[in-house]
Amino acid sequence: MKRRNFLKMSAITSGAVCLNVGGFNAAARAQFGPGDNPTLVVIYLRGGQDQLNTIIPHKDKKYYEIRPSVSIKEENSIALDDQWAFHPALEPLKSWYDKGKVAVVVNSGSPHSTRSHFDAQDFMEYAAPGNRTVRDGWLNRYLAATVPDASKGYGLPELRTLAMQELLPRSLRGRYPVLAVPNNLDGLQEVLDLFDGFYGGDEKKDLAAFLKQSTNVRSGVDADPVMTSGRETIYGLRRLQEVLKGENPEDLNNLAFQEYPAGHFASRMKKLASAIKSGVGLEVAATDIGGWDHHIGLGSVDGALDRMLKFLSEGLSAFMNDLGSHLDRTMVLVCTEFGRVCKENGNAGADHGHGGAMWLLGGKVNGGKIYGKWTGLQDSVLNQKRDLPVTTDFRDIFAEVLQGHMKFEVPDGFFPKYKAKANSLGLFA
Fold first, then answer.
1. Long-range contact list for 194-203, CB < 8 A, 24+ apart?
2. Are strands 284-289 and 161-163 parallel, antiparallel or unpaired?
3. For residue 55, what are the β-bridge partners?
4. What was the pLDDT predicted at 32?
5. Cα distance between residue 24 and residue 34, in whole Å
6. Which regions of the chain are under pLDDT 70?
7. For 358, which DSSP code?
8. How do beta strands 102-109 and 39-45 pair?
């Protein structure tokens, strides 16, 4: 490899593969066996995804009045009941909704009033609205609180958590080590070979043995967290490469081939499906989709929202199909920092709002329903007479997912200065 290419690839590896190293909370819950553990996949729609044109109050005359050019006409929408309809681009998810595998919580989000993308995303991913001192994401806090207990015979899963993107989302940043996967995973082989010697792990079997050590007595080799981080990164990437190539003997290669649409999102979801089916113990994964800040050209059955909802729904549907029986233990949670203003602006778009929607797909969700308190579109009930109000705090949804799907009893203090209502919605039967 030429020096210039080596330096370039080294920069990609060091910048894109982020591992946080630090002390773990050794208080463990009982772990599920390999291939049986519940898995949570969190997809963050960055930019403020619009609820009104996605989950449509298709019988509300006010909706058509305040969005004269961008509303989805009733005849074009996909009716769910006598109140709600899907945007037509969500057609791939309609059958899943009918099967009870999709639920939506309307008017959900953060109680904080900020309209800043950066603040709102931080507050949601750290699950601490208005608190700028918290630096462990809510998913990382879960991982740190549920470290497998080696004394009970539970080994650390090889790929317990993944960020299927080059930079860790804030929800996964914190004390627990998390592997972020670069897009060019297949092109990193030479770099991994070169760094093996530096981090003292020349053979994969040494790294595998290292990872299976007790997680609460990792003080010997972990005395140098940089070396530990490097070794775990190399092992994690190599292991993921094997899983995606079907080299794992536990990989379910006999499943019918699932075709995915084109694009980076579908590619990431395909890799996640392979990791989940392989039995390596994947428990928490996350990825982002940017570009939902539609001040201009939101569109109706055309435009930016239509295009983005199409590739999102097609990718999600392919992922759910691909999982097969593993879908019952896999939950997808789709989040966004806030919704958009109810009334369209002069550019056929909508500005930063307040209340939005969160989606739950798969697992044991009690789907085929729209959840959340809907208050209508009259000025008198809107936030600041312009936005959907937040009637369901996002932390209550997080808590219900952790308890109902991950079987984790959320302890006091998990959400700073907030007591979550883990069963307030009834999302899980």
1. 194/1, 194/6, 195/10, 195/13, 195/230, 195/234, 196/234, 198/230, 199/227, 199/230, 199/231, 199/234, 200/227, 200/231, 201/231, 201/234, 201/235
2. parallel
3. 86
4. 59
5. 21
6. 1-35, 149-156, 185-235, 247-256
7. E
8. unpaired
Strands 85-86 and 369-371: unpaired
Which residue from 426, 370, 411 is spatially nearest to 108, judged by alpha carbons?
A: 370
Write down the pLDDT at residue 305: 98
| Residues with Cβ within 8 Å of residue 30, at least 6 apart in sequence | 152
Q: Which helix (H) or strand (E) holds 370?
A: strand 369-371
Instruction: Return all residues near 346 (Cβ < 8 A) that are at least 6 apart.
Output: none
Q: For residue 161, what are the β-bridge partners?
A: 284
> What are the Cα distances from residue 140, in Å, to 16, 127, 162, 252, 284?
18, 11, 11, 29, 9
- pLDDT for 99 equals 98
End-to-end distance of the chain based on CA atoms, in angstroms?
56
What are the tens digits of pLDDT across the range 60-77?
Answer: 999 999 999 999 999 999
CATH of domain 3-21+38-183+260-404: 3.40.720
402 within 8 A of 139, measured Cβ to Cβ: no
Taking Cα atoms as reference points, which of 283, 342, 290 lies closest to residue 144?
A: 283
* C-alpha distances in Å from residue 174, one per residue of 21, 115, 139, 236, 353: 8, 25, 9, 18, 29
CA distances for 20 relative to 195, 197, 229, 414, angstroms? 19, 22, 8, 19
The pTM of the full predicted model, rounded to 2 decimals, is 0.86
Q: pLDDT value at position 383?
A: 98
Burial of 198 (0-12, 13-18, 19+ CB in 10 A): exposed
Residue 368: other Cβ atoms inside 10 A:
15
Instruction: Output the DSSP codes for 40-73.
Output: EEEEEETT---STTTEE-TT-HHHHHH-TTTS--
- Euclidean distance between CA atoms 115 and 97, whole angstroms: 31
- Whether the CB-CB separation of 286 and 42 falls below 8 Å is answered with yes
Strand segments (E) across 213-341 = 284-289, 330-336
Strands 85-86 and 55-56: antiparallel
State the Cα–Cα distance between residues 87 and 74, nearest whole angstrom.
10
Instruction: Tell me the residue type at 250.
Output: E
* Cα–Cα distance measured from residue 243 to residue 287, given in angstroms and rounded to the nearest whole number: 19
pLDDT at 279: 87
